[in-house]
Specification:
Length: 498
């Protein structure tokens, strides 16, 4: 265990030394681009106080975390730039953990540009790179990588559920879950390393070994359950892909216009109006959804353009997280009248086969549209996931849309602090990698314990290495074990100023 901790600490110190020796004081607009009432320019690094006092009339360091209304001047030209609020945050009590200050000024582009130019004229200051403030907070131990990723997701969140997911991660709830596993595995590793280093005999207490096996089995179960979540967090983070499919002129375009609450697709009585995929991104009950209106499907198109549109429609349905299949009420009623021995499920089966539609998504619904053109919707044909609607007079639409909302919740779940979910493919890959090592350990030790051979034949160095590999995989998620390549990937999509 001491060797393991030493490796982690030495790695962290090397990173810190590399970071500290090359770091300049950085500055950037942190409140976003464009005209606004107030703009916030953040400075972080050893010369933050120098920058603060150079641009203002302070003769001594101001009281930390107090706001002062001060005039701001350009250091070279001595021209007055603006009057704004100045705040001083000495390290480590700042966002980055370094000395830091903020200038809150009027948000006009000219004011911001003048202030950034003034900061650039101070020796030792340079503009911040994307995500560099958050990266410095990570290096300073103010947050781990999962929290940093949560902050990035919070910045880019467009819906309420995405915001909840990001806040849970940014506040460390996911890291807490991973750190619990890591601490348990570290204690297990300590048993083996202690025996390897200090064991006076060749026998490892079998009762201790069986307890270790129980603990490893429990961690295996928890990681497996965490991974086998239907990728809910990743889908919520990236958005649900929904496809509307069906035969020509059944009301697909009308329905996407209703969901989008605007005229997304052209609606006419002419079959085949939609020839390509028309997409819209919308917020449905806090869930981000990209809905695709597709070309009408039939056995053979009239030309190569329609054939290509149908090919794209089928591919869209194939890769969708949620599928909405729309049918014509007149055709459904005619089929049931001619085939009284058959059910509507028989019609759906024949319909999908004729349209060559394959439904891969576990969440899907069927809409029988154009009920306004039949005498009345059948009342004794209620089926799960099937709804009789009219896009023209809104009959049944509210119930169908409520079912859409329910399906989105099933797909994405609802983020909670008690059970934080995976939202990053990087985490999933590393946990799967760790699970492989856990399985090797569990199978190897289990075979020896259950065999007639004594556990004395156990190669303790091998099993210790398997546990160490799991700890390293989890450490790469939180940043306890990391490389510059990993950091570059994580922080490259941050906005400048954060």
């Amino acid at each position: 265990m001491l060797k393991l901790k030493g490796a982690f600490l030495s790695g962290a110190k090397l990173i810190m030394r590399k970071f500290s020796s090359s770091a300049n004081t950085i500055y950037s607009l942190s409140s976003g681009q464009g005209k606004c009432g107030v703009a916030v320019i953040r400075v972080s690094g050893l010369k933050s106080l120098t920058a603060l006092m150079t641009l203002t009339t302070f003769k001594a360091p101001p009281t930390p975390r107090n706001a002062y209304l001060k005039k701001i001047f350009h250091p070279k030209s001595k021209e007055f730039i603006d009057r704004g609020l100045i705040l001083w945050f000495p390290g480590p009590g700042s966002f980055t953990g370094e000395d830091s200050c903020e200038f809150h000024v009027h948000g006009g582009r000219a004011v911001v540009a003048a202030l950034l130019d003034a900061l650039g004229s101070v020796p030792g200051l340079r503009p911040a790179e994307p995500g560099e403030f958050t990266k410095r907070a990570f290096y300073s131990g103010k947050m781990d990588l999962t929290e940093a990723e949560g902050i990035a997701d919070l910045i880019h969140a467009e819906t309420e559920m995405q915001r909840k997911l990001a806040v849970i991660q940014a506040n460390g709830h996911l890291a807490k879950k991973y750190n619990v596993w890591r601490e348990k595995l570290t204690r297990i590793l300590a048993h083996f390393e202690a025996f390897i280093d200090f064991g006076e005999d060749e026998n490892f207490d079998e009762d201790v070994l069986r307890k270790v096996m129980r603990d490893v089995g429990e961690i295996k179960r928890e990681i497996t359950e965490h991974i086998d979540d239907g990728r809910r967090g990743e889908i919520l983070r990236n958005g649900v892909r929904a496809a509307i499919v069906g035969a020509p002129n059944v009301g697909k375009s009308s329905f996407i216009n209703i969901l989008g609450e605007r005229p997304v697709s052209i609606v006419t009585d002419i079959a085949g109006t939609t020839r390509d995929i028309v997409e819209i991104s919308c917020n449905i009950s806090g869930y981000p959804v990209t809905i695709s209106d597709t070309a009408g499907l039939r056995n053979k198109g009239n030309d190569i353009v329609e054939d290509e549109g149908m090919l794209r429609a089928r591919e869209c349905a194939k890769h969708a997280d949620f599928t909405i299949i729309i049918m014509d009420a007149i055709q459904v009623v005619e089929y049931l009248s001619k085939n009284p021995q058959n059910s509507i499920r028989d019609y759906i089966e024949e319909y999908l086969k004729a349209m060559e539609i394959e439904i891969y998504s576990p969440e899907h619904i069927y809409l029988v549209n154009k009920t306004d053109l039949i005498s009345e919707a059948p009342t004794n044909l209620a089926e799960q996931r099937l709804f009789w609607v009219s896009c023209k007079n809104s009959f049944g639409l509210q119930i169908a849309i409520d079912e859409v909302r329910k399906s989105l919740k099933n797909i994405c779940g609802e983020p909670t602090t008690e059970n934080p979910v995976l939202s990053q493919a990087r985490h999933r890959h590393l946990l799967c990698e760790g699970l492989i090592h856990l399985n090797v350990f569990h199978d190897y030790v289990g075979i020896l314990l259950n065999s007639t051979n004594s556990p004395v034949e156990l190669d303790y160095a091998i099993v210790a290495e398997e546990i160490r590999s799991v700890i390293q995989s989890i450490g790469k998620i939180t940043g306890s074990v990391t490389t510059e390549d990993i950091l570059d990937v994580i922080f490259r999509d941050f906005c400048i100023g954060k």
